Amino acid sequence: MQFRQDLLDHPQREHLLDIRRAIHAEPELSHQEFATSARVARELRRAGLDRFTPVGPIGFAVDIAGTGTGSARKIGIRADMDALPIHETAQVAFPSRRPGVMHACGHDSHTAMVLETALWLQHRRDRFAGTVRCLFQHSEETLPSGAREFVTAGLADDLDMVFGIHVDPMLPCGQIAAPAGPFACSSDHFDVVLSGRSAHGGRPHEGIDAIAGAVTFLQEANRISAHNADPMMPLVVTAGRISGGTAHNVIADRATIGGTIRAGGTQARDIAHLRLHEIAKGLETLHGVTASVTIREDAPLLSNDAGVAAIVREAAVKVCGDKAILSQSGMWSASDDFAYFSNVKPGTYFRLGVRNEAKGVVHPLHHPDFAIDEDALALGAAVLIQSALDALAA
């Protein structure tokens, strides 16, 4: 993959890969990323950066102040560090050494690219004015959200804009998608508890079947996006967990359901919340069960600022030409808590293509065979570097 050699030379590219592979082999779940955070901190200290602002016991931010003349802007670049509770089956030379845990969402790559960006900027402070704040964030995958904790701690308050990057195994290696406007759905978790009355399985009329209530709840929940929401607005209501009962011949007095809501707009999200509560209430009349619904926010709608998105696109063109930009890019039904940053400051979350069918790199995010074409990582870091330089020079 060809791009400007003054941004990342061969030793820097090798260092980028070494860091990514080391993190990949030692994945850590959300709120447990102690070794990953320590590894990143060691690399920064070797480069002379040792004034960190902690966020909780794991996450931290570091500022890199330019010595050039001009802008006094301050921009942020976010990296997420956590892995997923998935057992890796991808055939890579540096597999996870922790059974049941893997970097199935590419956060190892994000961390490595942002770290390499920080090191490049630290060694070339005379090439820019202003400040770049690198945000090494814990817990993107689970609650409580690491990004929300960073924002609550005030680390976005003095930023002029913020950037985020995510690998995308659906985009060909080397392509960049950075459109303006809504880009990733909001995400909520919902939990439902249904209570009935136990009875012998041969005398169901003497009980109140919580499992039957759960089945009806799921059937009606699956109808929300088809019958209650604007068909042009993304909305997904998915149950990922259901449990209930203790024996084959006993009417269950309790059942639980866990699921997710992904919405492409506030109206669709509000409809899903309302209907889940209405369905739960209606089960009392229909089945006699009582049902409670608890909904927790994972991340708000992620929308890219037009001006910041343009900076990324222009930077990508400078780095490797017009062919790098994907002109049409649909909205992700996935979500990301980067939205907490971009909801308080102008921001853009752009995708980096890592798919390569010739190499067998075709599996989606959150899949046990997920892998990336590592040739894309140097490009991603270079676009981050160029975006930072351009944003500060504006």
Rg measurement, Å: 23 Å
Name of the top-level CATH class of the largest domain:
Alpha Beta
Number of domains: 2
CA-CA gap between termini: 28 Å
The beta-strand count equals 15
Mean pLDDT: 95
Protein name: Amidohydrolase
Organism: Taklimakanibacter albus
Task: Please outline the helices and strands.
Layout: H1 10-25, H2 34-46, E1 52-55, E2 59-65, E3 74-80, H3 107-122, E4 131-137, H4 146-152, E5 161-172, E6 176-177, E7 181-184, E8 186-195, E9 199-200, H5 210-221, H6 224-227, E10 235-244, E11 250-251, E12 254-263, H7 266-287, E13 290-299, E14 302-304, H8 306-320, H9 339-342, E15 347-355, H10 375-393
Parallel strand pairs: 3-4, 3-5, 5-15
Antiparallel strand pairs: 1-2, 2-4, 6-15, 7-14, 8-12, 8-13, 9-11, 10-12
Helix pairs in contact: 1-3, 3-10, 5-7, 8-10
Protein name: Amidohydrolase
Describe this structure in words.
The chain has 10 helices and 15 strands. α1 packs antiparallel against α3 (107-122), α5 (210-221) packs antiparallel against α7 and α8 packs across α10. With 394 residues, the protein is of the alpha+beta class. The protein has helices spanning 10-25, 34-46, 107-122, 146-152, 210-221, 224-227, 266-287, 306-320, 339-342, 375-393, and strands at residues 52-55, 59-65, 74-80, 131-137, 161-172, 176-177, 181-184, 186-195, 199-200, 235-244, 250-251, 254-263, 290-299, 302-304, 347-355. The longest helix is centred in the C-terminal third of the chain and has 22 residues, at 266-287. β1 and β2 (59-65) form a beta hairpin. The protein folds into 2 domains: 10-184 and 301-393, 3-Layer(aba) Sandwich (Aminopeptidase); 186-299, Alpha-Beta Plaits (2-Layer Sandwich), CATH 3.30.70.360. 32% of the residues lie in helices and 25% in strands. It starts with 9 loop residues before the first helix and ends with a helix. The strands form 4 sheets. The chain has a 7-stranded mixed sheet, sandwiched between helices. 49% of the residues are buried. The mean pLDDT is 95. The protein is elongated and about 80 Å long. This is Amidohydrolase. It comes from Taklimakanibacter albus.
